[in-house]
Specification:
It contains 18 helices and eleven strands. It has 459 residues and is α/β, with parallel strands linked by helices.
Amino acid sequence: MAPQPTTYFHSVELQRNKCQGCVSCVKLCPTEAIRVRNGKAEILGDRCIDCGACAAGCPYHAFSVKTDTLEGLADYAYNIVLPAPSLYAQFPDNIPLESIWQGLHNIGFDEIFDVSLASEYIALEIEEYVKKNSNGRKPLISSTCPAVMRLIQVKFPELIKQVVPVLPPAEAAAIYVKREAAARKQLPKELIGVWFISPCPSKETNIRQSVDVHHTELTGSFSLSEIYGLLLKNLGGTHELNVRTGSSYGMAWGTYGGEIESAGITNGLAIHGIDNVYDLLEQVSMNKMPQLDYVECSACKGGCLGGLLAAENKFVAECNLRRRIAALREQEPADRREAMARTMVLEDFPHSEAYRKKLVARPMMQLDDDIMEAMKKFERMEEVLCSLPGLDCGACGAPSCQGLAEDIVQGKAHEIDCIFKLRASVHKLSQGMLELAKQIPIYHEPAEINKTEADNDEG
């Protein structure tokens, strides 16, 4: 019996009319979730992790990212927006945060809650967890990037036990602010919208189908680049806003390495870019880095500042945010914990343990539900794989020869999809036709026969 696929939500979508079947996306995907069949790309939903590598690398812009629109604000009586440091990084540091907050209010949000403040609470949870598990298998792995969590589910399930079980800051912020606003405004939670400004597709996907929280309090998300464009027209204002924000350490979560710094981890490593994260996780899986305490992983190059939905160049954004951090740090105590204590004054901020769900494996390859049939298909797949050239060129529309072999036994591809197998088949066919031609008598037209006889007589 064929396996019954689980339905997965994906914010990354293919626009088939733009796809030219160039196979660029096939080679970029870290989970081998894309095939090119009949000249068009196809996304395997059970393997896609919404990292956006395909969209970032497609020369024809054939992939789009689905996010919410501001029209959704009308469905709620009170709307709260959660800007993260990645939003502030889009603007030069001479534009004050207050001006950005006023712009968000002008767009239509009733309240602003800075995600950097929630980051500080999560940073202390990480610090505590790393200390408590100092004698366990290392390094421990950051859980704040949903695309990385999905990569671990699909490709490295053996590393699940090394993932630090804390909430992403935006999820923790949403839990707190919705509960607090409902009590303060005397409104049912159903009438309060909590919106995140997302720099990447994986965070949008995580709202619809979470890997880390039992029930999200986030209503939806907006593309950072879209909000940035609107803010340019709406910056500033005179409305009095009481925005709760974090210290420089919470703000540093926008830069790669900021999570490690805010958690006070001195023996850690920050990795960004899905290809680099993949390489790192391979080494961790082989237990080649047991001396390291913690790894901070971001699927996007440059961390969240390099997200697919960001508006500004990631290097410019990095410069902007670091200048903001430096300015904040000049006004703070030198001690990290003292600086964070000044802003961490919220009562009853949620602790991850009560809300986070267990991360579970998402097997990438299931040949069949029936174990005996699956074993037969696996043996067949090994035979097919041995007959393929092993070049992993991608010209067949699969990411590797193994991927093609799997597709063949699943009835989704043919051996002659491999150009080398096709060439060999054509060569064999042509040789056979030549041999056949030698064995068939040549038929001459009567006129040709007479002409041949006359030529012989003259000779």
